[in-house]
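Technical annex B. To support the medicinal chemistry partners, we prepared a structural model of the target in complex with PRP, based solely on the information shown next.
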Amino acid sequence: MNSFLTIAMPKGRIFEEAAELLRKAGFQLPPEFDDSRKLILEVEEENLRFILAKPMDVVTYVEHGVADIGIAGKDVMLEEERDVYELLDLKISACYLAVAGLPGTKISDISPKVASKYPNVASSYFRQQGEQVEIIKLNGSIELAPLIGLAERIVDIVSTGQTLKENGLVEYAKITDVTSRLVANPVSYRIKEQRITEIVDRLAEII
Ligand code: PRP
């Protein structure tokens, strides 16, 4: 008998690709999975329970053990530095973290400011560059910041590059590539190793 497992899934952009990957790996996900507003979905035939979380919160649920495993972007893992195991690169939702701003602009000498949804990533990047900047945390529409004069630079995800382009911004540096990862709670991994390994193997086979 398979043990029951809870998987934290990221809502939004990554969800569709993640659900498609699970289906390709043979997991029987019901059709209502894709457009339900429910936040907990059980798939009894698979002994699986899915919780649908904000992408940034997936690693929090997994670290606290209320989800055994989860699908989280590398960006979230770098930002949150949670105590979770990274089991597999799912190679979905590929994008990258970059520094961007208005073309031909410099970071202010007097009070340099960088806006980001990733304050830890941004601050460690600029520290490594030897630059002392004030980080301003935003929760979305980061590209607004340089346009409206809140910051000279942003640190954000670039996927197609469309948002930067449409807002007249340019990239100044690439920080790191990002894809989604399968992560596990360390205790769950010990207790439910067989079941989790089985899932990793099924996914690894189709990646
Ligand atoms: C993300 C990211 C960029 C955009 C990049 O924002 O923060 O703004 O996508 O994608 P692109 O390179 O394909 O244009 P998201 O749409 O998730 O919303 P947010 O602004 O609320 O973070």
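Notes passed to the chemistry partners:
The chain is about 30% helix and 30% strand.
Residues 13, 117, 140-143, 156-163 surround PRP (CB under 6 Å).
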